[in-house]
Amino acid sequence: MSPADQNSADDAPQEERYVALVGMGPGDPGLLTLRAAAELARADVVIADPAAVHPEVRAHARADAEFVDAAAGDPAKLAVKAARAGRHVVRLYRGDPGLGCGLAAEAAALRKADVPFEVVPGVSAVTGVPGYAGIPLTDGKHREVRVVDASEGGVDWEKFAAPGVTLVILGAEGTVAEVAKGLVAAGRPDSTPAAMTSLGTTTEQETVVSTLHRLAADTKGMESPAMIIVGDVVNWRDKLSWFETKPLFGWRVLVPRTKEQAESLSTRLRGYGAVPDEVPTISVEPPRTPQQMERAVKGLVTGRYEWVVFTSTNAVRAVREKFTDYGLDARAFAGLKVAAVGEQTAAALVEFGVHPDLMPDGQQSSEGLADVWPPYDEDLDPINRVLLPRADIATDTLIARLTQLGWECEDVTAYRTVRAAPPPAPIREAIKGGGFDAVLFTSSSTVKNLIGIAGKPHNVTVIAVIGPQTAKTAEEYGLRVDVMAERPSAAALAEALAEYGANRRTAQIEAGDPLRKPSQMRRGARRRK
């Protein structure tokens, strides 16, 4: 480097280093703010309680970021040491840094050490948890809210006896009876509505609505962290509960697909309140001899084919990757007719820039596509050749039907499907032991491969399948099919499971039974009370 270049480098503005004191919300990773996500993306060092950091929050940090357990020492001293070493530090707090956290003491220590810091507020448990419980802290009649930290005990409940004031009580999980007695002794009627929410804003959230008189007995065994809300606003819960009433709330659902395919299905399941667990059963790999696909792509460009048929999103991906290799794009399909076996495959084509000319009217399968396929007409069709880029294990049903209609089919191996490696031991144990509430099967191969690599799902687990053929395979393997999609698509399968969950919940309520997930029906499952 020349002296001039060295001077330029020295004069270049340096990125400001400081400690970011960041709130990550009360539990739901979706409540992380944009500013918090940006700070995590910049962080060299993250100081936090590991148990409190959701994997989706952690994913915002770089892969090479160092995570330091806040319990490994004084968090402020850890932050000072890292900042003085020239590293960008993020100190993560659950909820909001300034409410029920160590912001005051830690920020003061940073100021004393002359280390610059910034505060990134987060969604506080005080507002976030009641919101997820369906309890507004204020309404037209109740305008005052008071927050009480009861974690150290010794609260003078006389100060909180006013009947029209909403109380949000933190840190009282182990002293519920004492809190209730203190408020009643201070003048609050024992009939005052009270609610307790544990693990708020997470899919393990549980809310119990009671009164001061019954609160301790009704909430026995609830997990920490928990919050108590006292006041007439609790009565809104019956009308405004939206989170815990989702049809699959808290259900742990196994999604056995390739990772790329699982993403959209998992997103839909989360929308219904479920906790999807993606377990790949199939690994998609390139063909052993790529020359066949290379000739097929060249044939597409030179006009060798009249039709090209896509029977899976993997086939679309394989062709698209070959196009990229050759510097081609969707314009190479000009003059070709394109068929898609179903909605998901069609969506992948549209994303590529290709709109299918033909899709099944009813059953979204090779058979359904064959049912609507036109016969070859030498007056209308200048070429009678059809390209089918497919998996190495594809069946010959479609080819046989098209051949009967007068078409010449070229079946090309676009990709190979290989059974994935077995999932980790805890997943296998959960599958066989009833730890999952439901499992979604999107093809016969997912049934065979899941059982092959992980074992047969427990009999309490709800079995949901995408169509009749998958149902037949599941039954052949001794599984009881509980749910089948009305049409063979991932969206319809998730919707069908959600409808099943909603009906199950309604039946439990009408029967006066406790609301229990399928996994809680197995022998030895933990119950709260």
From TrEMBL:
One of its GO terms (molecular function) is uroporphyrinogen-III synthase activity. The gene is nasF_2. Residues 19-215 form the Tetrapyrrole methylase domain. It comes from Actinomadura rubteroloni. Pfam families: HEM4, TP_methylase. Keywords: Methyltransferase, Porphyrin biosynthesis, S-adenosyl-L-methionine, Transferase. This is Uroporphyrinogen-III C-methyltransferase. Residues 507-529 are annotated as: Disordered. One of its GO terms (biological process) is siroheme biosynthetic process.
